[in-house]
Amino acid sequence: MTPSSPSPVPGPAAGPEAPRELLYERALDWLADDPDPRTRSELADLIEAADDDQLADRFSCLVPFGTAGLRAELGAGPNRMNLAVVIRAAAAVAGWVHRREGRASHGGQPSVVVGFDARHRSQEFAVAAAEVLAGAGVRALLLPGPVPTPLTAFAVTHLGADAALMVTASHNPSGDNGLKVFDASGRQIVSPQDREIADDMTAIARVSSVPRTGPDDPDIVHLDATVQQAYLAAAAMMVKTDGPRDLVVAYTPLHGVAGDLFGRLVESAGFSPVAVVADQAAPDPDFPTVAFPNPEEPGTLERALTLAERCGADILLAHDPDGDRLGVAIPDDGWRVLTGDEIGVLIARHLLAVGQMRDGAVMASSVVSSRLLAAVAAAAGVEHVTTLTGFKWISRAPGPGQYLAFGYEEALGYCVHGPTADKDGLTAALMLMESAADLRAHERSLADALDDLAVAHGLHRNVQRSVRLSGLQGRQRLASMMQTLRQSPPRTIGGRPVTGVADLLHGDPVANLAPSDLLIFHVEGGRVVVRPSGTESKLKVYVEVVLAVPDRASLPELNRQAEVEATELTDDVVGLLESLSIPSSTDPHR
Fold first, then answer.
1. Is pLDDT of 1 > 70?
2. What total number of domains does the chain contain?
């Protein structure tokens, strides 16, 4: 599925091509309806300053649905995250829930869980969403205090609710916020659900017309710690009660909300307390010690790696700010930060080793993730499914009579069959702790396990790089870039002939993949995937090189060779982007 097209701004159209007077008319109309003094003042200043570029960007569209929800920079206007947009979204979700057939209602009344993280304005947005839900006759189940996203996903099914709203921007920069929407199964919504909600948001002409109760309305249920306790009990049962527990763990929640719950989970599972990076332990919406609060970003784990070295850790674990993603580093002739693909295949290996597969088990990974998991699953006789990017698709990989035993995406998202149906960085971390402890008990390591997989299935080297774009013109160039690649695909990449091109713009009925704005270039000994991000204004490139491994002794040299070949392919793709007049500001990984 392609990300939802940008929704028109409620009221008169005022995109980048609109006459200037219409743009200002729309801005003044929004200003008169904005319920928030803070963003009213901000927008009034832009109008007074006659900042045409800013206004054109902010009024180009209503924040579009990307990865199962909204995510954007905080600020005034329809193309920003603010109180007016949150009210529209909550009202649209309420309407969608009322229309759903087979609602999991409480006494005939539908209910929606509302959770929030510790980002700027998250709690305020969550309370406003609850008030709108209650005003629409929907029971709002408000979780207590800032919580990780996996807990909100768990609460949907645990409480038998119809849906959930989670106020979070995950690993985005500190100036962003968003809303993630889950259905009654605890999975992220997909089309046509997202389109219905987006259409309903656009149909709301005036925010001031949306009914909204006070925070003490009886239809706003303030939940206690019972949900957290139930999650901890279910998650702790995922590990063997009699397994090894001798393990030293360094940990950072990167100023996010996962630290407290993860610490309690570690204790519930019988492990010793983890060593936490002190100045990253408490939630802080400014993320003061990192440039980007994303474990994938180079330099983000510097403090954690220092702690891991100092305490002699066996493994370093890092959660992103809302706890649904997991970063990992391991000792291996120094400290080695693992890729998302390496983490994914290590978890899969462990689940197969401990026999956590029942009849009907399915493993799944996204089309941009390494193909190594498919090889591992095939060797074990377990079905593997390739999905589009995003956990809304990975979580729906199993067919009738099947269940998702394990699913992952290269962007550090993992779901092990357990308390949540969505990605969960806490339970994924627990699985890796159990795996590392088991290996240590046999005088082996996670690095040894990766080498075993390379010998058995070939050395898979994966590299990611992103081309960041900015502003409305950047997004337009991005679309133009994808169109040019489709019309004139390269014949060679990195000196290797392109042996085939797969374009998923119209889907792939054979692989049962819905339409997605994604191109796959098959080359000799590897492949290159290019797609726009669903949540940020950037183009993402994924490169995979596969080398046969004749024996374990050849691994050091093959690792060097794979790194060189993957880098050559990646550099050539970036050069191609530059030749197509795309801004050349790139960042490793994401």
1. no
2. 3
